[in-house]
Amino acid sequence: MTTATASSSLVANNQPLEQPSPTPVPVTRPLPIHQTNIPRVCCAILASVTTGGTTYAFGLYGGALKKKLHLRQSQLDTISAVFFLAGFLSFIPGAYVDRFGPRLGISIGGITGAVSLMSFWLVAKGFFPSVIEGDDPTFVVTVLSILNVGIFLSCALVTGSVFKIISCQCGPGSKGSAVGVAKGFVGLGSGAYACLFESIRQPNMDALDFLPLCAFFFITAATIPSWITLPSKANETFVPDVLTPLHFRVMYASLSSLAILIIGNALLGLYKDSGNENNAESSPNYIMTGVLLFVWIAPIVSLLYLPQKSDWTPEASTGGDAAGSAQVDDNTGYEQVTLLNSNDVSGSNNDISSDNISLEPIASHADEESLPGDEESVDEEDEEDGTGQGQEVTGTASSYSSTDSKNLLQMLQTPSAWMMLWITTILAGGGTVETNNLGQMVESLGFSDVVTPATLALFSVAQSGGRIITGAASEASLNYETRRCCIDKGIPRPFYFVAASVLAIFSHTILAIATSQALFVIGVTLSGIAFGMIWPLMVLCVSEIFGTAHVGANYMFYDGFTSAAGTFLLSKIVAQQVYEDHIEPPSSGKSDGVTCYGIKCFQQTHIIIVILSFTCVATSILMQYKTRNVYSKSNISRP
């Protein structure tokens, strides 16, 4: 049969010839900055510091609050504990972010956070005499506790928005590093704020004046940039991930410089307190203020001007849609935005340029033709590995999620969710035992008081380093040439839960037997690394195993629950009970009846954490096995 005859036969049968799919071409010129993910990621990283600076800073002004309002230690502990117990409600701000978008989440979170902080400051400073009048401080404790809940939920709004942006806007190869960087800034936030406050502190200011500083940055580093930079929920569009290793090297340099300044400031404080210098009131150091702000803000702004990834080439579209339209690739499940050369598309609009990208909002797939795998199934493994049987399929403004999304209730019906909840609760609790009881640990072991701020600074920097390294390492290891971790190629992210659990075992074993300052400092530092490792893993595993459509509520459930439950279980119940059980009676002449001395004061606490960490090792290995198909699919679709 000749070619002409074959063509006539097809036309006669009303079967038009299939047109070849257009071929995408690499982007050889930088895209306009607003058509990339860089402004959104910059906004998220800038806002991340505001949450860490507020969340972990109560110890900086708690003593001044106690003295100003004549509170008992138990009343001060109540105000502090309520802040973390509000974590049980943190899924609510996360759900708000999923519903209304990160722009409103960060903007409103910044405003309500600033209002709550300023209200707390005004009450604590005595600007409302009716609140603090009377001999019984119960009412003022109640008011400050309520304001603390408002501060925590505001931080949760910002935190949920930050990691919603990164989870949705960063693709394979950069998401882990971006999460690690943002978590690194969260970890260093309180230290950076403390250094800033000390550098601008006037002789007549007390520690409570730290709160207006936090309120100021809530507005200037969170609310204003997000309102200007981020699109509204209705206008969210897919933008390509053009971040390069250079962008992350700049961020690592910024974090390293901040860490050096924080440690240097802590050591300088130790030097002054040791009596080597007179203890006269120091004057403000505005040069240090400028250096800190430059090291924090300038590298983030510079990301807008660094070279973009120049070889971003999306996959070919499977249909005959117009150039630049959003597609769902049948093999990877990723939505694609194809950049087409106008010469490759016969009859295309003359408006389409060779590197034009569609910025049309991405519609939900729920109303489109069903995707393969939507049929209901009771196969537990399919539900675990994200193939999507019987699950809600929800579109997002990102093209970088290959997993059908589960909402919070659906997520909690899977064994993997509960495995990760157990692991993160124990490891988070092990870290808060250190931060909440470090002063008592130093006192019980008979070390100098100057050891406390030094080890706190080391813990802060260590846990920040753990966040950064884990985010970057877990991203890189997804493509390692190994088949020994339950998947066909690479190392899945849950493996790092195993590593964090093993590190927690070593660190708390050292702390259980430490009687020298050197061994104690080593144990605290290793504990900080183990504590820091879990935070980027929570963001990444939640978004990859359970999808990004509900990542705000799902991640914030973990973020809040682990802090609240871990702190209450290990730091409040276990550590406090063990400490009080080993206080010698005043009649013994070895104690005042309220202070414990000796290694036994916290030894049993560390042993209990070691035992629980062994269960985390086993649970992490099981979780790695249960989620193996998620990461096998991810590796198949990775370059």
TrEMBL record:
Acidic residues composition-biased segments: 369-386
Transmembrane segments: 38-58, 78-97, 104-124, 139-159, 210-230, 250-271, 283-306, 416-433, 494-514, 520-543, 607-625
A Pfam family recorded for this sequence: MFS_1
Gene Ontology molecular function: transmembrane transporter activity
Disordered: annotated segments: 1-30, 361-404
Main location: membrane
InterPro entries the record matches: MFS, MFS_trans_sf
Keyword Membrane: yes
Signal peptide location: none
Positions with biased composition (Polar residues): 1-18
Database matches in Gene3D superfamilies: MFS general substrate transporter like domains
Protein name in UniProt: MFS general substrate transporter
